[in-house]
Amino acid sequence: MRKILLVLIGCSLLFAELTRENGVVSDSVSHLDWQDDYSDNGGVAKSASWEEAIVYCEALSLNGDEDWHLPNINELKSIIDISRSSPAMDPLFESITSSYVWSATTSASSTFFAWSVNFGSGSAYNYGNFKSNRYQVRCVRGRQ
What we know:
Helices cover 18% and strands 24% of the residues. It is an alpha+beta fold.
């Protein structure tokens, strides 16, 4: 019985509970806030190399908060909605994308690559994602 209970508890943590306010989508399960306001970039998602994406997130000031960062691959995968495609994300996000989005996680196989999520299919990739490629950026912050 204990194993089943742990599996059920683990599965319930996979589902995000999202709300939106002032250009920020908040997940009450993961306690993460997601950037969904790109007014600093003309209203469209920022496209950048991996290093530029890190710098952009670290400099972001949004909704009175300045502690943003480029999400690691597990944080980024937490907003994939596998019940959807093109884009595989909750429609609560107004700035949705079917493109690749950078994570801060470098590939273990090569430091020239980093992990990303293709929100068209909802799949995560690391091979072939040269850090010089230009992918979209979605910053995140952890809430206290």
